[in-house]
Amino acid sequence: MTFGEAPARPAPPPSMTQPCSAPQRLPARGLTQSEVEKLWGRDRGALRACSGRHGALAGWVGQLP
Q1: Residue 17 — left, alpha, or beta (φ > 0 → left; ψ -120 to 50 → alpha)?
Q2: Where are the domains of the chain?
Q3: Which pTM was predicted?
Q4: Do the Cβ atoms of 13 and 57 come closer than 8 Å?
């Protein structure tokens, strides 16, 4: 390392850098209420998981020197 260079940082754990899931694909037809609720629930679950990963990554980065 030379003067002025930032120290090398370790790579974050792979579990924190997984891409977020894409929204559920909708069929090209009308959906029943049950189908809408099921797809919506899957999307909400994926958003919660993604938010948790991003929060963990932000916390991990914040703990680095």
Answers
A1: alpha
A2: 33-65
A3: 0.66
A4: no
